[in-house]
Design goal:
Strand content: 15-25%
Oligomer: single chain
Structural class: alpha+beta
Helix content: 10-25%
Shape: rod-shaped
Number of strands: 21
Low-confidence stretches: 1-25, 400-406
Mean pLDDT: 86
């Protein structure tokens, strides 16, 4: 009786375990078995369909649906996880369009030795031209797009590599400020700055050039401020000696000198002005010696007719006139044109200057016009006629001989 009771209890326990565990425990299964509920069969065990035991970012049901291994993060063993090769869509990426997902086709293997990895090779058993990879591995942007024919795929140590060596203006890392996408990444002049400012941002140029915007200087291919030298709105002026940076090169009054002496150096003033220090005269924008007009130690005086440079401008007796015309000639055109006479200072002496008188020809009568052009009281004295008999005859004298006699010199 005791034996039958033990047997009954043992059988009851087995039935209880089978009844409660069949639907929840993983249990053994085969690939063709249907696991209960939202489960799938992985390596002989039923697991949740949305589980990701290999940590590749794909669920077990996703991987099983296309032949990937839910227990291996890299089903094709090419060093790239299945989740990365799958891509971001609902269906896995098939780069070469051969019907096999990239995650199942090795990116490291090259079955036909054509330098094209199997995952990028639509025919793994037939060598494929490298050019078929151009649109896959080469960027079709920026200067690469505008010179697409110069872009090519080359094989480097068994690996296809995009070559842009023949693309004019291409840079691996963009450093040129030229309004182009030199590194073919779809962004123009990215990472180019001027004092921390990006292209298009407000900036202030050096010196007096003021505010502008950061832009590219195409000749130097550098970032500049638009109001500075070479900018589209440049405010550059010629450098003046005025304490400002007029040419906006970052240096104030650069190149300013007086007779070869730079600002702050010792100098010798013009004329009667003695030694001093080179400084700026803002009113003229020039460098002067401090003892000259406008300087801190000015010694210049009013110009007088004495043969000296009293006002220290480098010229003696300039611009001086006298109202006293007593030294001027009073005959000929100098009499009729008296209002045009001037008395000027020449080497410390007052001298009459009739050069502005109409008809005046200097100290020689230069015109045969019936006027006293040299103001000496004699009309046309420089003009004579050599008559047929060899005699010298002046104006209004009789002339001629034979049939031509009886004429008058005119």
């Amino acid at each position: 009786m005791r034996v039958h009771l033990l047997s009954y209890c043992f059988l009851s326990a087995l039935l209880l375990i089978w009844a409660t565990g069949c639907s929840d425990a993983p249990g053994p299964c085969s690939d063709v078995d249907h696991c209960p509920g939202a489960k799938v069969c992985v390596q002989g065990a039923c697991v949740a369909a949305d589980s990701d035991d290999d940590g590749d970012g794909l669920t077990a049901s996703q991987e099983l649906a296309v032949g990937l291994s839910p227990s291996s993060a890299d089903s094709d063993h090419d060093g790239v996880e299945d989740g990365i090769e799958w891509g971001g869509g609902d269906s896995p990426v098939d780069s070469d369009g051969d019907g096999i997902p990239d995650a199942l086709e090795s990116l490291a293997a090259d079955a036909d030795g054509d330098c094209i990895p199997d995952s990028l090779d639509p025919a793994n058993d037939v060598p494929t031209p490298l050019s078929t990879l151009k649109s896959v591995i080469c960027p079709n942007l920026g200067v690469c797009a505008s010179q697409w024919d110069a872009v090519e795929v080359v094989c480097v140590m068994g690996v296809p590599v995009c070559s842009t060596e023949e693309v004019a203006g291409h840079q691996v890392n963009e450093t040129w400020c030229d309004g182009l996408d030199n590194d073919c990444n779809g962004a123009v002049d990215e990472g180019i700055h001027l004092a921390g400012k990006s292209i298009g941002e407000a900036c202030v140029a050096a010196g007096s050039c003021g505010e502008g915007v950061v832009e590219c200087h195409l000749a130097s291919r550098e970032a500049i401020c638009s109001s500075g030298p070479g900018g589209s709105m440049e405010q550059v002026e010629s450098e003046r000696c005025d304490g400002l940076d007029n040419d906006c090169d970052g240096t104030v009054d650069n190149g300013m000198h007086f007779e070869g002496a730079l600002l702050g150096d010792e100098c010798e003033g013009y004329g009667l002005c003695g030694p001093g220090i080179v400084q700026c005269r803002p009113s003229s924008g020039l460098a002067i010696c401090s003892t000259m007009t406008g300087g801190d130690d000015a010694e210049a005086e009013e110009e007088i007719c004495d043969g000296l440079d009293n006002d220290c401008d480098g010229i003696a007796d300039e611009g001086l006139f006298s109202p006293d015309l007593s030294s001027c000639p009073t005959k000929g055109v100098c009499f009729t044109g008296r209002d045009a006479l001037k008395v000027v200072c020449d080497a410390g002496t007052w001298v009459c200057d009739p050069s502005a008188v109409p008809g005046y020809t200097g100290q020689v009568d230069g015109l045969c016009d019936g006027l006293d052009n040299d103001c000496d009281g004699v009309v046309d004295e420089e003009f004579q006629l050599t008559d047929s008999d060899g005699a010298k005859k002046e104006l209004e004298m009789s002339c001629g001989s034979g049939p031509c006699s009886g004429g008058i010199v005119v």
